[in-house]
User: Which sequence fits this backbone?
């Protein structure tokens, strides 16, 4: 699931941009260091393959629906983690630029959720379990388990990032409850598809999989990387938490006299919130946006009706001006394209 | 007598999986000559061409010379600049994002100045009549245009020898006709692997027939292609065009 | 990735190769301004709507000047909308504090923030699409590389883009072959799926190998060099400078509000 720009605060988006950007630079250096010149065209073509492979669907056993390969784990198995991470990052870049999948600010989050987690968490797990015995029943299990873990972690990332941004009102716990089962299912499909393709390749051309893409990843640097990432993200989180201890939740309860406001929907909310209190390790903590918003929140009740009206009138007028400008610019005589 | 542009002595090569693709090939080509390399699928044509361009020299036996240079690990970059290779599938050869970048790829690798690179790109594209597609991405070109640009990308390196693998494959009749005219107009030493015997007859004066990694015939075009028994034995067909060209039929 | 998506990429690619004042700008200037634009838009508090309106000028200006069909951008936005829409729609459920009234209609905070989310979505997505459609992938990639994106990454990104169509043609051929021989729906059994995708994979790897051969044949030594790009001119500087100043002003002052107040003052 792609994280979307509209739900993201610049601080969270920026933090993950920095993390993912650093990872790209790091992996690019690693690829360069291994001095495998053939890797650059191979990476590009494999990225294209992942795109194209999504045209081919298979029917998911036991259901009426069909699925396809997302490719993160697959790429790591074929190219090794460094190159695979770069390929996934460029796939996500193309998706965000051409299909507005996610968006530019959210790209950092998406690269982290769908690149870092599958490649540097799920893939080492896969390697640990299979120990090179591709195509064995063990490898099938490994591929399913690690794909599920990769996707669920990714979904968890989306939830954390959304909550930390505080743009969406959706409580952390209920969001988790919605996202996890979906991604559990997607992970199963992904693991199955990966295992099928890998075992085909293993039967047809075993040398491709046996030639270890590089010396292999050492677990320690990755754990260190994870720890650093966790620290950075945790730091960002606690910064939000401290600048905004109670968030809007509290103010809503205070202002509206809490439960009575909402009818049947509040019941759902309560239900979910109750469940969430039991399940979530983070309480429903309103990590809401930065200071600017705090001012706005405080300012809102005291805003005079006049200001709202002026905003409305001015906004509509500006909108009109935008449309006019667009039309005017378009009416220029067409210069012949070369 | 001048030094041959290309000389191959007793060249043998087996792929890592054990396939013996070449078994003791020997021939020489004089400068400026056009030679056709014919033979059934799997005869070893593509493998031979790769050796001429400095590929696969790791596990080979025998010797390949380009002019005075013996192809070896040390001389390989020199050889790659002297021998331009046009690949069978243009999509494999045109890997850069625009035609201009692609044609500039070789000259830039040679470390030429940017003015010189620009001059070469321009003149190579002009030579094949493709200046108008300069800024286009390769995947937007027709098969014929792709082939022409692929040839330009090799010409821009100003090689002495041109090596081509099935240049007329997948071309429509008009594009094929233009390719033939283009190939005829070159003064380079040309070695052209092809199934298109009519192209071979029009462009080349000499033919080498390969079968199972061996040279089974080598000589003037017309004589060999008219030898129906030989042609049939090695899985080839006598080209129609010769029936009109040769007085003895 | 459905077939329609491929035609979409093709369409964007065509737009990116047109010629217009926007296309002629240095890609780096456009990337820089677009990034600043997106960050500024996202930095507004979540109940903000009116101050976001003036930001529309930027994408609309780009799209109009680059002669990108507005319909095309709109269509793409509609396709991309569901996730933001879905998550945004939750806000009115949870945040019911009345916030402002428009005539008889009372808007809760949730609705205001939902509209704000939609607005941000429209702004950031249209800006990003305008950037790509008004620059083209190749110029964008080369520009990013010059902005400091690691070269290995930039190059394989361009390779990916270059071979998207080639590999997808191969995938389409494989699928055609399957359809000819099978009856019923397009979805395949797992075993057949594995061998088809596996074959596509092997073919792709073989192709990568041939590409590498072709690169080596033309003197590739591990370093990919690009042609000299144009140097940024005063046009680019003016574009970047003016855009940044205007965007900054729109972030600091609520221009819509000011316009409204000024008009109200003028009337009364
Ligand atoms: N990469 C490879 N690995 C193993 N065998 C190969 C490879 N490429 C070609 N061959 C084999 O080498 C022989 C010669 O192939 P090739 O030179 O491509 O022939 P031609 O171009 O004349 O059709 C064939 O038997 C072919 O199967
Ligand atoms: Mg061949």
Assistant:
């Amino acid at each position: 699931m792609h994280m979307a720009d509209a739900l993201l605060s610049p601080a969270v988006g920026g933090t993950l941009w920095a993390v993912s950007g650093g990872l790209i630079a790091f992996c690019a250096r690693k690829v360069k260091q291994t001095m495998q010149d053939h890797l650059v065209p191979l990476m590009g073509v494999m990225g294209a393959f992942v795109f194209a492979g999504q045209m081919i669907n298979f029917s998911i056993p036991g259901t009426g629906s069909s699925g396809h390969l997302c490719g993160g784990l697959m790429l790591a198995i074929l190219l090794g983690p460094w190159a695979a991470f770069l390929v996934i990052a460029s796939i996500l870049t193309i998706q965000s630029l051409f299909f507005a999948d996610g968006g530019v600010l959210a790209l950092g989050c998406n690269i982290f959720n769908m690149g870092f987690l599958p490649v540097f968490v799920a893939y080492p797990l896969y390697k640990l379990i299979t120990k090179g015995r591709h195509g064995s029943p063990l490898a099938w299990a490994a591929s399913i388990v690690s794909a599920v873990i990769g996707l669920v972690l990714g979904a968890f990332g989306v939830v954390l990032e959304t909550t930390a941004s505080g743009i969406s009102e959706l409580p952390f716990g209920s969001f988790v409850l919605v996202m996890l089962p979906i991604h559990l299912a997607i992970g199963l499909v992904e693991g199955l598809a990966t295992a099928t393709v890998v075992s085909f390749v293993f039967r047809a051309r075993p040398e491709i999989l046996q030639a270890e893409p590089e010396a292999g990843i050492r677990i320690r640097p990755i754990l260190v990387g994870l720890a650093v990432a966790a620290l950075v993200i945790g730091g960002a989180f606690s910064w939000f938490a401290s600048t905004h201890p109670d968030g809007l939740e509290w103010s809503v309860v205070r202002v509206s006299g809490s439960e009575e406001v909402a009818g049947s929907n509040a019941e759902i909310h309560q239900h979910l919130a109750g469940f969430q209190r039991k399940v979530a390790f983070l309480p429903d903590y309103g990590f809401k946006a930065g200071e600017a918003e705090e001012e706005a929140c405080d300012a809102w009740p005291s805003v005079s009706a006049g200001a709202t009206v002026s905003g409305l009138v001015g906004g509509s007028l500006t909108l009109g001006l935008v449309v006019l400008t667009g039309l005017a610019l378009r009416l220029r005589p067409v210069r012949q394209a070369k | 007598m001048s030094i041959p542009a290309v000389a191959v002595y007793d060249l043998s090569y087996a792929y890592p999986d054990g396939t013996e693709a070449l078994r003791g090939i020997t021939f020489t080509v004089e400068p400026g000559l056009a030679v056709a390399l014919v033979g059934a699928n799997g005869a070893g044509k593509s493998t031979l061409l790769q050796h001429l361009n400095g590929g696969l020299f790791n596990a080979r036996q025998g010797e390949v010379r380009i002019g005075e240079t013996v192809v070896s690990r040390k001389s390989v970059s020199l050889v790659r600049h002297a021998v331009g290779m046009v690949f069978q599938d243009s999509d494999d050869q045109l890997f850069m994002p625009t035609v201009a970048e692609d044609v500039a790829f070789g000259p830039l690798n040679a470390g030429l100045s940017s003015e010189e690179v620009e001059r070469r790109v321009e003149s190579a594209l002009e030579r094949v009549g493709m200046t108008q597609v300069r800024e286009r991405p390769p995947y937007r070109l027709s098969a014929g245009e792709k082939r022409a640009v692929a040839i330009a990308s090799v010409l821009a390196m100003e090689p002495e020898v041109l090596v081509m693998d099935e240049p007329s494959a997948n071309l429509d009749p008009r594009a094929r006709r233009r390719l033939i005219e283009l190939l005829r107009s070159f003064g380079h030493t040309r070695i052209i692997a092809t199934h298109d015997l009519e192209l071979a007859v029009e462009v080349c004066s000499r033919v080498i027939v390969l079968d199972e990694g061996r040279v089974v015939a080598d000589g003037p075009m017309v004589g060999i292609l008219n030898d129906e028994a030989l042609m049939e034995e090695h899985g080839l067909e006598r080209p129609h065009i010769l029936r009109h060209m040769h007085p003895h039929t | 990735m459905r077939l329609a998506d491929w035609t979409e990429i093709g369409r964007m690619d065509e737009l990116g190769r047109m010629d217009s004042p926007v296309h002629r700008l240095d890609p780096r200037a456009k990337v820089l301004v677009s990034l600043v634009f997106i960050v500024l838009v996202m930095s507004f508090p979540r109940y903000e709507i009116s101050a976001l309106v003036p930001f529309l000028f930027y994408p609309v200006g780009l799209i109009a000047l680059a002669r990108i069909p507005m319909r095309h951008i709109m269509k793409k936005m509609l396709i991309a909308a569901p996730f933001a829409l879905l998550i945004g729609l939750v806000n009115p459920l949870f945040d019911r504090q009345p916030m402002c009234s428009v005539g008889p209609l009372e808007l809760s905070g949730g609705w205001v923030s939902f509209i704000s989310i939609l607005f941000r979505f429209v702004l950031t997505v249209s800006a990003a699409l305008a950037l790509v459609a008004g620059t083209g992938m190749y110029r964008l990639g080369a520009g990013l590389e010059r902005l400091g994106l690691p070269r290995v990454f930039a190059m394989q990104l361009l390779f990916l883009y270059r071979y998207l169509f080639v590999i997808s043609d191969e995938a389409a051929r494989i699928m055609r072959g399957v359809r000819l021989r099978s009856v019923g729906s397009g979805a395949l059994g797992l075993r057949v799926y594995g061998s088809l995708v596996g074959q596509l994979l092997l073919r792709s790897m073989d192709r990568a190998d041939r590409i590498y051969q072709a690169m080596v044949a033309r003197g590739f030594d591990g370093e990919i060099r690009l042609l000299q790009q144009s140097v940024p001119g005063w046009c680019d500087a003016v574009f970047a400078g003016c855009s940044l100043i205007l965007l900054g002003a729109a972030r600091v002052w609520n221009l819509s509000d000011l316009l409204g107040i000024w008009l109200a003052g003028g009337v009364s």
Notes: Residues B 15, 17, 19, 21, 39, 41-47 surround adenosine-5'-diphosphate (ligand 1) (CB under 6 Å).
